Amino acid sequence: MSHDFSLARERMVKNQLIPRGINNERVLQVMGKIPRHLFIEEALAGEAYNDHPVPIGEKQTISQPYIVALMTEALELKGTEKTLEIGTGSGYQTAILAELSSRVYTIERIKSLLVNARELLAQLGYNNILFKAFDGTLGWKEYAPFDAIMVTAGSPSLPKPLIDQLADNGRIIIPVGDRYSQELIKVIKKGKGLEQKGLGGCRFVNLIGVHGWSD
Ligand code: SAM
């Protein structure tokens, strides 16, 4: 049976995002539009708009809507950016970045997740996304520099290749901490220096790779 989730989406924006301070109109508008339930297996679709992460297989999760909104808002996307995403997962965050940037480069280390996300995003009509099955802690050198980088898995530190591949005035949003809890940080590249700001505590699955955690 097909189900119209537009009311659930509207409630998610009204009850979970706006009261917690998300006020970027473009972010609210795309999150009110993108069919999050399609990025989750059908049996769990009823949970898609709830205030928590949902499993997407391979021991991975689609992040809680508020965390997606907070991270997206912090990237300050205007629509002209080349954006790099590490951790494609279900592809939901990728769709949001594709709506708000000019081009998105997304990397996922688990091939089956990448293949599913690529298929769904093509079906939904996105044609400004490039996909790669790879270790995202190494970035994507061929297309650097990036104006914005979002890492959607928790890292022990800021991976150096990602800083190197960031444009001047570019922004990275990344959860940094131990394997079980992290601080969401925003880093802005200013010439040879970096400005850093904390956005609060969070809990992500591990970023696994050369500049992340070992498996
Ligand atoms: N943004 C995703 C979404 O909207 O569904 C959720 C991402 S999930 C919290 C984190 C993802 O990061 C997982 O799919 C995991 O396989 C991936 N990941 C972990 N380490 C990675 C790495 N080094 N490179 C690329 N992807 C990685």
Structure in words:
The strands form 2 sheets. The protein has a 7-stranded mixed β-sheet. Strands 1-2 form a two-stranded antiparallel ribbon. The chain is an alpha/beta fold. The protein has 6 helices and 9 strands; from the N terminus they run ααββαβαβαββαβββ. The longest helix has 13 residues, at 111-123. It has helices at residues 6-17, 25-31, 65-74, 92-100, 111-123, 160-164, and strands at residues 54-57, 60-62, 82-86, 103-108, 129-133, 146-151, 166-177, 182-190, 193-202. It has one domain (51-202): Vaccinia Virus protein VP39 (Rossmann fold, 3-Layer(aba) Sandwich). The model has no long low-confidence stretch (mean pLDDT 97). Bound molecules: S-adenosylmethionine (SAM). S-adenosylmethionine is lined by residues 56, 60-63, 86-87, 89-90, 92-93, 107-110, 113, 135-137, 152-153, 204-205, 207-209, 212.
Distance between the termini: 40 Å
Distinct compounds present: S-adenosylmethionine
CATH architecture: 3-Layer(aba) Sandwich
* Number of structurally distinct domains: 1
Shape: globular
- What is the makeup of the main sheet? 7 strands, mixed
Task: Note the beta-strand portion.
Answer: 25-35%
Q: Can you count the helices?
A: 6
Note poorly predicted spans. none
**Topology, number of strands:** 9
Record the strand order, biggest sheet: 5-4-3-6-7-8-9
- CATH fold assignment: Rossmann fold
Task: Give the % helix.
Answer: 25-40%
CATH class call: Alpha Beta
What would the average pLDDT be, to the nearest integer?
97
Q: What Rg do the Cα atoms give? A: 16 Å
The CATH homologous superfamily is termed Vaccinia Virus protein VP39
Q: Structural class, from helix and strand content?
A: alpha/beta
Q: H/E series, N to C?
A: HHEEHEHEHEEHEEE
